[in-house]
Predict the structure.
Amino acid sequence: MLALLMLVSSCSDKFQVVDPAEPVPVIYFMMNPLDSVFYLTLSRTFTGDLNAYELAGDPDRVFYDSADIRLEAWEGQYKVQELQFSLSDRVKDPGYFPQVPGYCYKADVSQGFLPGSLSPIDSYRIIMQTEGMAEPAFARVEKMRTSPVPSQFNRRIDFYPDGYKYPPDRYSSELKHETAVSPGGIAYQQFVCEFHYLVYEGTWTDHTVTFTLRKNLLVDGGGIAPILYADFFFSRLAAHIDPISDTITRRFISLNLVFLSADKYYKDYIEAIEEDGNMDLPPKGNIINGYGLFSMFTIKRYEDMVLGQQSLDSLSMGQFTRHLGFVRW
């Protein structure tokens, strides 16, 4: 018993939290094939005895001095093109990280890299190597061949019949679009509205509210498909604009419809953030020998769209939005 007590009393009550380890690259690259310049962020994991916020402010600890980063284009099992990234002087909002360049890399597509939809390329691979790494970090994504977004929209949107004349179950009108063939490599889509209007506060001032209308808007086989019903549109709008007691204080200007299409890796990443928002688990990624995400997406925008007169009537007098104080002109 005496020997046991001596053994216990000699043990330290200090818990070693920090276990020094080799840094692991953290790579985030969202590739839009329509961009003329690609941007990639690169940092690394770090350990130390100081407070984590203090450690994150040390550029030498969280950034690599240099890195060899390449984007490869593949046709089946053959690499047919390669694009080199270089360190840029661009400083995005790094949060707790230092406000200095060091983690944002760029590649100019004008160097001859052709990721367009007509190219026979099947997939892309991002690969990163720096001094001291035993093996490179990499990830591969499939090319998105078609995007299930509207091929065209009329600039003027009309909801029929007039929303304010009927109860909700009579909101039978819908905004339709023509989609392309069933897409390849697309697993996620988000449909966003950017709603522009004026508010009278002694003078007319510009305001914009942005909100999601629908997610995962995928249509198999193409053709005509409803995407937006009047009651749904006006109820979503009402949920994102504060009501006012005075009328004749707001005036509609225009709206933009934005369609974001992305691959399965982006879908997994977004769903992980939404489902594990308490951060018990880190967001899912697809970087081998590292952390982060390499994903492909496209954005299609329809800008400066307007509401027809009947839609303006519904905006100003419909049961969903009449409390918002929009005028009918």
